[in-house]
Amino acid sequence: MQRTRKAKKQLKSPEILLKYNSPRNKYDTHNTGLKSYLLEEDLEEYYKELQKQYLKSSEPNEFESFVGLSVGYKKGFDALNTLRMGTFDGSLSKEEWKMGMLKDGELGNSVCAQDATSPFSVDMHIVEPRKGVVHCFEPVPSTVKKLKELSKDLGYDKKGFKVIHAAVDKEPGTTFFKSSDVSGLENHGLDLCLNQKTKKGCDQEVEVLTLANYVKENIPGDGPIHILQIDVEGYDNKVLLGAKKEVLERVEYLEFEYNWMGPWGTQHLYDTIENLDDLDITCYWAGKKKLWRITGCWQLYFDIHTWSNVACVNRRMAPDLAEKMEKVFQQTLKIPYSEIGFTEPVIKNSRQDLSPRKAEKAVSIDPDVMTAKYLQ
């Protein structure tokens, strides 16, 4: 039975939550991405179990095709590994991809070191990979050119690596990007050419899509979208709003960034989490081999906009994965605060929200309490 708004209570006492469930320092989740946690831990384990089922199947072709959406994933390393993991195709090589990306030109720095993480381990007994496709959306002209050329040269375009030259937002339209940018640049989002200080050189018009429209035209029906990855420099929530219910309710696993950039600076994560919860999607802060549940565990402290990664699972569509992720969260709660591995405290004034004496206020979801700091 779906919970009502009123029934969505915190699942642990405020003191316990404030002691353990508060990864909002320059923290365990800082820029680790799902690259270091889920794609190497629970999500990978989940797909290894699916891989075993695929091997045992007498009719592999009856195994539903894998579908992934990768929005703004720069150099393509994460998208490529997602396709490798979803299709059990060992011929999709991150090392080969890296060599190709570095060949004949400069490549932007990899902030999260996606190129250095281990690829998904494909069982050597798989002869015919699972059918599938990952739709990769990238707006930077030089990066798109590189991705398309390399995908074609390696033959990955015929194995399901599909590059779409477009930005993704809440509403369709057009925007501009710099054609002179180095390929693979990160931290270049839709805001870049809207800012008077950085708009010089924005000379190439780029289409802006919504996921709702794209999926309707290219992935029709009501079948699962197995993985949706979003990394769009502050526009993550707008991408989700543009996806609408029709797309999100089909997504099994979702990951996105949360920070102060672009629209995120004036948007409330709480609203995003509640909307996703209404679609049976549970979200967590993602750390290194740790998860902190946000859904049903809201704290005012979470409203601090800083670099972090959010991992979500559809309880209805992927119950086994949901169980794995919840288990990791429960295990994380048992880790003493001193052993969590935080490296830098947040602003002192913000730490007041962590005080057990203010626990009841800190975990409140009362609108007046949540908006008070914006009305001072």
Features:
disordered N terminus; 376 residues; 3-stranded mixed β-sheet; alpha/beta; 8-stranded mixed β-sheet; 13 helices; globular
What topology emerges from the helices and strands here?
Layout: H1 14-20, H2 33-36, H3 42-56, E1 66-71, H4 77-87, H5 94-102, E2 132-138, H6 141-154, E3 161-165, E4 167-168, E5 173-178, E6 202-209, H7 211-218, E7 225-230, H8 236-248, E8 251-258, H9 269-277, E9 281-287, E10 290-293, E11 308-314, H10 319-333, H11 348-351, H12 359-362, H13 367-371
Parallel strand pairs: 1-2, 1-7, 2-3, 4-6, 7-8
Antiparallel strand pairs: 5-6, 8-11, 9-10, 9-11
User: How many angstroms does the end-to-end distance come to?
Assistant: 39 Å
Total helical segments = 13
User: Per the principal axes of the C-alpha atoms, what is the gross shape?
Assistant: globular
| Main sheet specs | 8 strands, mixed
Q: What does the radius of gyration come to?
A: 21 Å
Counting helices, strands and paired strands, the structural category is alpha/beta
Mean of pLDDT: 80
Question: Widest sheet: strand order?
Answer: 3-2-1-7-8-11-9-10
Order of helices and strands: HHHEHHEHEEEEHEHEHEEEHHHH
Low-confidence parts? 1-21, 24-37, 343-357
- Fraction of residues in H or I helices: 25-40%
Number of domains: 1
The total count of strands amounts to 11
